[in-house]
TrEMBL record:
Pfam families linked: AAA_33 (PF13671), Acetyltransf_1 (PF00583)
Residue intervals of the N-acetyltransferase domain: 190-340
Protein's UniProt name: N-acetyltransferase domain-containing protein
InterPro entries per the UniProt record, alphabetical: Acyl_CoA_acyltransferase, Bact_Acetyltransf, GNAT_dom, P-loop_NTPase
Organism in which the protein naturally occurs: Nostocoides veronense
Residues passing through the membrane, by range: none
Domain of life assignment: Bacteria
Keywords assigned by UniProt, alphabetized: Acyltransferase, Transferase
Gene3D superfamilies linked to this entry: 3.40.630.30, P-loop containing nucleotide triphosphate hydrolases
C-alpha cells in the first residue's frame, strides 16, 4: 500500500554522483514531482548561477515542493544542498507540510565522479553545465558531508542565530521563498509533554475516566500518568491558544517497532482535525527516527468507531495481538509500516 503521508525527497552530493538519475527513478516509481534546477537554469539563462538567479529559482522550487506535499503529492528536490543547514531547513519544511522527509546522499570516488560529470556534459549538455578542474576543486572544498547524526533523522537542531525557526532561515537563504511560518506555541502546535503540568495530568485522568465504562478492567489498556513517564515513551500534547486539546504517545516495543498510546482529543475540540494532526505528527516522528512499524490497540465498541476510521484512513490494517496483548473481543489490533523509504 502506498503511504498516505507524502514524502519530500532531497538528493545531496557533488556533481556527477548520480543525484538526477536517482531522482528520475523515484519520480517514475512514486509518480512524484521532480524539481531539478539545472533543467530550468539551462533553458532560462544558459548559465549555472547567472548572477544569483539560481537562488531565486531554487526558492520557487522549494515553494512548489511544499505546495505539492500539502496536496498529498510526493516531491523530489534534486538540489545538492551542500550544507547541513540547507538540508535541515528542507526537512523542517517537509514536516510543516505534514509530510515525511527522505535524505539521499550519493558519493563516488573523486576521479570517477569528475569523469562522469565530464561525460554528462559531453553527452547531454542541455541538462548540465561545463565544469573545470578548478570548479571541481572548489566544489569539493565547499561540500559538507552529512553526518551519521543527520542521516539518522535525529531531532533537528535549533536554527542558526538570529533566526527563530528553520522556515525563517530558509526564507533568508532562498529570497523568493516566503517564510512559511512554523506554528507558534500559543497557537495550534504539538510539542513534547511535561508530566509535571497539572493541566496535563487532569487531561490524562479524564481519558481514563472516559474509558472506564467502555470495557471491563482487563480490556482497558490506557496508560496512567506514572506509566506514561516511563522509559521508552514519548508523550506529546497539542495546544490551541495554550489549552491542551489532544495528546498522543509512542511507546517502544522493540527494535524498529513502537506502539501508539494515549490518543485523546478533548470532547469540546472533537471534529476539528486535532486527532488527524496528532496522528500525522506521531507518524512523522516515528518515521524520522527510523521506526519501521507502528501498532496500536483500540476498542471494538461503537464508542471507538471514529478512532478506528481515523487509523484505517492513515493506512493502518488489522493484525493480531502484539507484544503482551492477548486476543480479546473488546479489542481491535492495527498496524502499519512507516512511510520512510529505504535509503539507497
Amino acid at each position: 500500500m502506498r503511504p498516505r503521508l507524502p514524502v519530500l525527497h532531497l538528493t545531496t552530493g557533488l556533481p556527477g554522483t548520480g543525484k538526477t538519475t536517482l531522482a528520475r527513478q523515484i519520480e517514475h516509481r512514486d509518480n512524484a514531482i521532480r524539481l531539478t534546477p539545472d533543467e530550468w537554469m539551462q533553458p532560462l539563462f544558459g548559465e549555472s548561477d547567472a548572477g544569483g538567479r539560481r537562488d531565486i529559482l531554487e526558492g520557487r522550487l522549494v515553494w512548489v515542493a511544499y505546495r505539492a506535499l500539502l496536496s498529498a503529492s510526493d516531491a523530489i528536490l534534486d538540489f545538492g544542498c551542500w550544507s547541513p543547514d540547507e538540508r535541515y531547513a528542507v526537512r523542517a519544511i517537509a514536516a510543516l507540510a505534514g509530510g515525511t522527509f527522505a535524505l539521499h546522499y550519493l558519493t563516488l570516488e573523486e576521479r570517477e565522479r569528475r569523469r562522469r560529470a565530464e561525460h554528462r556534459w559531453r553527452t547531454v549538455p542541455h541538462e548540465t553545465f561545463e565544469m573545470s578542474e578548478a570548479d571541481h576543486d572548489r566544489f569539493l572544498a565547499a561540500y559538507q558531508v552529512p553526518t551519521e547524526h543527520e542521516m539518522s533523522y535525529a531531532a533537528l537542531p535549533p536554527p542558526p542565530a538570529p533566526f527563530g525557526s528553520w522556515t525563517a532561515w530558509a526564507a533568508d537563504r532562498w529570497p523568493t521563498l516566503p517564510d512559511l511560518g512554523e506554528p507558534a506555541p500559543t497557537a495550534t502546535g504539538i510539542s513534547r509533554a511535561d508530566l509535571s503540568d497539572p493541566a496535563l495530568r487532569t487531561f490524562l485522568q479524564a481519558h481514563l475516566d472516559e474509558l472506564e465504562p467502555t470495557a471491563p478492567p482487563e480490556s482497558r489498556h490506557a496508560l496512567d500518568v506514572e506509566r506514561l513517564g516511563g522509559e521508552g515513551i514519548r508523550l506529546f500534547v497539542c495546544r490551541v491558544a495554550g489549552e491542551i486539546v489532544a495528546t498522543g504517545a509512542l511507546a517502544r516495543l522493540g527494535a524498529g517497532h513502537e506502539e501508539i498510546k494515549s490518543m485523546r482529543v478533548a470532547p469540546a475540540a472533537r471534529g476539528r482535525g486535532h486527532g488527524r494532526s496528532m496522528l500525522a505528527f506521531l507518524l512523522a516522528d516515528a518515521d524520522n527516527r527510523g521506526v519501521e512499524r507502528l501498532s496500536l490497540e483500540t476498542g471494538s465498541m461503537d464508542f471507538f468507531a471514529p478512532a478506528r476510521r481515523l487509523y484505517v484512513a492513515a493506512g493502518f490494517t488489522p493484525t493480531g495481538p502484539f507484544a503482551s496483548y492477548v486476543a480479546d473481543p473488546n479489542s481491535c489490533f492495527l498496524t502499519r509500516l512507516t512511510a520512510r523509504p529505504a535509503r539507497p
